[in-house]
């Protein structure tokens, strides 16, 4: 649906976007994640044909943004960072105005009514936009993007400045629209992207440094996939007991950090969830599990780690960690193989 190849954008001498490549299929909901100034709005403005590009090719549904801007604009509904609202108009007047501007062909009243129902603003259609709350204004912004039924929605920081309740409402609206639209959504907030997107493109200093599912990204970057268990027990006994729990790869005692208890770092085998089994083993032994914590990084931490680095360093981290994980897996297999051999010998 959207193909971007070798895209660069210069503002004067400043290179804001550098050699960006990605493609988005029909129906995908993709998040652009990056700190302020990363280049998210610049890329979005180029996709929508509102900003020229310095180098590269961008096509939407096969139409080139430079050669066929009208065909591209017809397919895209755009909600810019600051929605282009005319606040002295009523909601209905404004949407009628947008309808005319976009030269939409659907039956006018029915189409506008349908859009207003979809974003739930029909009950405020007679109100002046300037008298609406920020959350409602944002919905009017969504409505203007939806006029003309575009296949693609480009939403630039759609929840900025909203309160938590409004954020949830807008998030639900995006999830609803995601069922029959291709959506690109930008944010500098992780949870935002995680909540609605199955794919995240991390943009930093004008470059793409990662493009993956939220889960894969945290898995790649969290070399530490261990759990920490705090157990009231004796050290030797519990060490032996934990090592034989199904799915556990290794256990190390971290010492005693709370009187009467020991902390154990438990590393599970690839993809194994050993929490329930650890709990059961501890209680079988008549011991008390005080806490069980997951040491893997949240996506928030992954994002911070990546964007704190130079892009080359961030890529190295992503690349290397993949290697590190592969190596660890290989070692696992080797260990398993040697264990089997020993058993046979016994
Ligand atoms: P984001 O949306 O990720 O916050 P932007 O795309 O708005 O980032 O900006 C990327 C970089 O380009 C920033 O350093 C910004 O200052 C710069 N920039 C954006 N627009 C202009 C412009 N019109 N002229 C010069 N520099 C700009
Ligand atoms: Mg921006």
Can you tell me about this structure?
- By secondary structure, the chain is of the alpha/beta class.
- The protein contains twelve helices and 14 strands.
- The chain has helices at 40-47, 69-75, 91-101, 108-118, 134-146, 164-177, 190-196, 214-221, 235-243, 275-284, 299-308, 311-345; strands at residues 2-11, 14-24, 29-33, 55-60, 63-64, 76-79, 152-156, 182-187, 199-204, 207-212, 227-232, 248-255, 261-268, 288-294.
- The strands form three sheets. A six-stranded mixed sheet has the order 6-7-8-3-9-10, sandwiched between helices. It has a four-stranded antiparallel sheet with strand order 2-1-4-5, covered by helices on one side. Strands 12-13-11-14 form a four-stranded antiparallel sheet, with helices on one face.
- The protein starts with a strand and ends with a helix.
- 34% of the residues are buried.
- Magnesium ion binds next to α1.
Q: What is the overall number of helices?
A: 12
Helix content: 40-55%
What is the beta-strand fraction? 25-35%
Name the assembly state.
Answer: single chain
How many E-type strands? 14
Which helices and strands appear, and what pairs or packs with what?
Blueprint: E1 2-11, E2 14-24, E3 29-33, H1 40-47, E4 55-60, E5 63-64, H2 69-75, E6 76-79, H3 91-101, H4 108-118, H5 134-146, E7 152-156, H6 164-177, E8 182-187, H7 190-196, E9 199-204, E10 207-212, H8 214-221, E11 227-232, H9 235-243, E12 248-255, E13 261-268, H10 275-284, E14 288-294, H11 299-308, H12 311-345
Parallel strand pairs: 3-8, 3-9, 6-7, 7-8
Antiparallel strand pairs: 1-2, 1-4, 4-5, 9-10, 11-13, 11-14, 12-13
Adenosine-5'-diphosphate (ADP) is lined by residues 11, 14, 16, 34, 36-42.
